[in-house]
Design goal:
The complex is a heterodimer of chains A (146) and B (436).
Chain A (H helix, E strand, L loop, with lengths): L3 E7 L9 H12 L4 H22 L2 E7 L3 E8 L7 H4 L9 H5 L7 H8 L2 E7 L3 E9 L8
Helix pairs in contact in A: 1-2, 2-5
Chain B lengths: L4 E3 L3 E4 L8 H5 L5 E4 L2 E5 L8 H5 L5 E3 L12 E6 L12 H11 L3 E4 L1 H21 L6 E2 L4 H10 L13 H19 L4 E7 L19 E6 H17 L18 H5 L15 E5 L1 H12 L8 E5 L15 H15 L7 H9 L9 H8 L8 H14 L12 H10 L8 H10 L1
Parallel strand pairs in B: 6-7, 6-9, 8-12, 9-10, 11-12
Antiparallel strand pairs in B: 1-2, 2-5, 3-4
The chains are: A alpha+beta (146), B alpha/beta (436).
Chain lengths: 146, 436
């Protein structure tokens, strides 16, 4: 078996359509009948990172790669980048502005949530070249569970 | 009735009337319908009874699988179980006169739902306030009242089944009461009893054609509001024209007197309007409902305690089997609420005693719902997902529906699953001819 890869565009500052890429990923995974808890974890990570792009990152993309032993979710954007990754990983730390908070975002739980729900997370960020977040989810033996 | 019919548990398609526009394809939330040779239909997935296909069909080829306007036979006792949406079909008429009209039509008893709606509200408030401490169910809780929503969840969002409030729906409470109190009185004397559910949509009753559709001692018939409306309005007009207040007597407290609270239920937001819940929402319309369910699955809205979903726009007043337009009906409801207020008649203490005994707990098991309404398609492998992407590239993706599938993605999936041939796509076929 080979890999399956598909990517979705994320439009920055578009709060109305925010979440669409994650919903697409979720629907794809549902059609493949993965364990529902795993789908939920991937979807939460997708949504959190998608919201980060929408809030801070300008335009970006979310790509899903499904392999026999793992799934990789990669989110990249051309935004301002993360200044201090270690600080950003702390629960409650947020750079969201008042507008974001008014909409119910900006609790500073995005990256911590992504860390909690993925098996591995790698963040590459540069203040003038944007951010790439790569999350890995290992599949149980035999690929799928029911 | 024509010979060429195809039906699900909830709707019937008449192929003689079908013009092949395919409007039903696009609105079907489970993508269950396919068109072939410009005639609907082949049913490939589970029908959840939302009635959107009935609404969308310009030719009138799709109808509800209700019993139709059958004349009430005199050989049995007819009991009408009335949805409060019925009152909204008669602006300016008091609910009691509508119920009297039904009795003039030949129904022995007319059971008004407001009594059971109040029981449901008390039970729901109690469950929610306890859940704040025990956290037995995940937030947000989802209203179980609209059966299409519950089936939609079983089909497309099985992860959310634990969010469905485990309290018996008002219509189930009503049916239980009638079966345990009214029917035995008649069956003692050897009389046959038939329950008629008078509904705004094709879906309120679990039909007998489902594997768990229980056949009771008494039979049950579903009628659409539009099935009885033409005759009922004659009786209602007579009652209105009659001098003075007509004298009539009923035996059970739930046979008369609809409340403002009950008539409000037909409107989107009417279920939660009088409920004592900190944070609740009302969402109506199929598209919006799906939208919200998708977001709840992503982990959003956990700060909300209860969401009332109705797949019909504006709530049950927008049901496809109603007799008058939903906005006219809404106006009638607003008048009624203004007149009667939203107060309840029942006392909380009495209901709580029954609550403690577990009398309102719903026994519907998520696993059973998924087996009845879940998607029965085989899971796609990585390879078939890749094939689907390849097909998508070939067919260009304009969702023209000429192939008979609701959209390109579904067609591509059908092709990969072996249920459709690639040449059914006009683009692919045209390209092949040019080359060939």
């Amino acid at each position: 078996m080979s890999k399956f890869k598909k990517s979705f565009h994320i439009k920055g500052r578009d709060f109305i359509r925010a979440g669409e890429a994650s919903i697409n990923v979720q629907n794809l995974l549902k059609s493949m009948d993965f364990d529902s808890r795993l789908i939920r974890r991937v979807a939460i990570c997708g949504y959190e990172s998608e919201m980060n792009v929408v809030m801070h990152g300008g335009d970006g993309s979310l790509s899903l790669e499904v392999d026999t032993d793992k799934m990789i979710l990669e989110i990249s954007d051309d935004g301002p980048g993360i200044e201090d990754i270690e600080l950003a990983m702390k629960a409650g730390y947020s750079t969201a502005n008042d507008d974001h908070r008014e909409m119910g975002f900006g609790a500073g739980m995005g990256l911590p949530n992504m860390k909690k729900n993925s098996d591995q997370i790698h963040i590459q960020s540069n203040t003038d070249r944007g951010t790439v977040v790569r999350m890995i989810f290992f599949l149980p033996e035999g690929g799928k569970t029911d | 009735m024509s010979q060429k019919q195809i039906s699900t548990c909830y709707v019937r398609f008449d192929q003689n009337l079908c013009a092949g526009y395919g409007s039903c394809l696009r609105v079907c939330p489970t993508k269950a319908i396919r068109v072939k040779n410009k005639k609907a239909v082949r049913i490939v997935e589970q029908c959840i009874g939302c009635g959107e296909c009935i609404r969308s069909c310009r030719e009138g080829a799709v109808s509800a699988a209700t019993e139709g306007p059958k004349v009430l036979e005199k050989d049995h006792v007819a009991i009408a179980l009335v949805s409060p949406v019925l009152y909204a079909q008669f602006p300016g008429v008091m609910p009691k006169d509508v119920l009297l009209g039904l009795r003039h039509m030949g129904f022995e008893h007319t059971i008004d739902m407001s009594y059971f709606l109040e029981i449901f509200q008390f039970a729901t408030e109690e469950f929610i306030s306890r859940n704040r401490k025990t956290q037995t169910a995940p937030w947000p809780l989802i209203s179980p009242v609209c059966p299409v929503v519950v089936r939609l969840i079983a089909f497309r969002f099985p992860n959310l089944l634990p969010n469905v409030l485990p309290v018996l729906r008002p219509v189930a409470l009503m049916a239980r009461e009638v079966k345990s109190r009214l029917i035995p009185e008649y069956s003692k004397n050897g009389k046959e009893v038939v329950l008629y559910y008078i509904n705004p949509c094709p879906t309120k009753k679990e039909p007998a054609c489902l594997p768990d559709g229980k056949q009771d001692v008494s039979s049950e018939i579903a009628l659409g509001i539009n099935d009885i409306y033409p005759e009922l309005i004659k009786h209602v007009d007579q009652i209105k024209a009659a001098d003075g207040i007509p004298f009539y007597q009923t035996r059970f407290e739930y046979e008369t007197c609809a409340t403002g609270n009950a008539s409000m239920w037909g409107m989107s937001g009417g279920e939660i309007a009088d409920m004592d819940i900190d944070k609740s929402l009302a969402v109506s319309g199929m598209e919006e409902t799906i939208n919200y369910l998708e977001k709840i699955e992503l982990g959003l809205f956990q700060d909300i305690e209860y969401i009332e979903f109705r797949t019909c726009r504006e709530g049950c007043l927008g049901g496809v089997l109603n007799a008058i337009d939903k906005y006219l009906a809404k106006g009638a409801v607003q008048k009624m609420v203004k007149r009667f207020g939203l107060g309840r008649r029942l006392h909380r203490e009495n209901i709580m005693r029954m609550y403690e005994k577990g009398e309102f707990r719903s026994e519907k098991k998520p696993a059973k719902l998924t087996s009845l309404f879940g998607a029965n398609k085989k899971a796609l492998s990585i390879d078939s997902l890749q094939e689907i992407e390849k097909v998508m590239e070939l067919i260009k993706g304009t969702d023209c529906m000429a192939c008979g599938a609701p959209d390109c993605r579904t067609f591509a999936e059908d092709v990969v699953r072996g249920d459709a041939a690639l040449k059914q796509c006009l683009f692919v076929d045209a390209q092949r001819r040019r080359k060939g």
